[in-house]
Amino acid sequence: MLSTIATALAGLIGAGVIVMGARALWAPQAAAGFGIPGTPTEDRTFRAWLAVKAVRDIAAGLLILVVPAGGTTHLLGWVVLAASFIPVGDAVIVLRSGGPKATAYGVHAATAAVMLVISALLLLA
């Protein structure tokens, strides 16, 4: 039962990451919500880099969704644990760029914490 709930939560994380990536492709101005001040969403070069990040977000989200189909709960736990480094890195990037601490901690670090709990539930199930 606990592993089913944790798998569903991991699926929500995966779906959320896919939505964020797709949103960055179709509405680049959404990148301003990442937390880096002065995000130049109208700059063509920045938009190209944003598209690179968006495609990687979509792929990371798909990975989290595909693993349960062919793997085990334990494998999904390791994948979610490894993926939790992404929001940790995002929080550090926001802080190093002088972005809002509320976004760094309230969005990115909180996401990492949720992912760590989900991975623990999956690994201990």
Molecular structure report:
The radius of gyration is 15 Å and the shape is globular. By secondary structure, the protein is an all-alpha fold. The mean pLDDT is 92. The protein is 79% helix and 0% strand. The relative contact order is 0.18. The protein has one domain (2-124). Helix 1 runs antiparallel to helix 2, helix 2 (44-70) runs antiparallel to helix 3 and helix 4 (85-96) packs antiparallel against helix 5 (101-124). It has helices at residues 2-26, 44-70, 73-83, 85-96, 101-124.
Gyration radius, in Å: 15 Å
Shape: globular
Question: Which strand-content bin applies to the residues?
Answer: under 5%
For the biggest sheet, the summary is: none
User: What is the total tally of β strands?
Assistant: 0
**Which stretches of 5+ consecutive residues score pLDDT under 50?**
none
Note the gap between the termini. Answer: 9 Å
Count of DSSP H/I helices: 5
Order of helices and strands: HHHHH
Average pLDDT over all residues: 92
Structural class: mainly alpha
Instruction: Indicate how many domains the architecture comprises.
Output: 1
Helix content: over 70%
Pfam family, one: DUF4267
Keywords: Membrane, Transmembrane, Transmembrane helix
Protein name: DUF4267 domain-containing protein
Organism: Streptosporangium longisporum
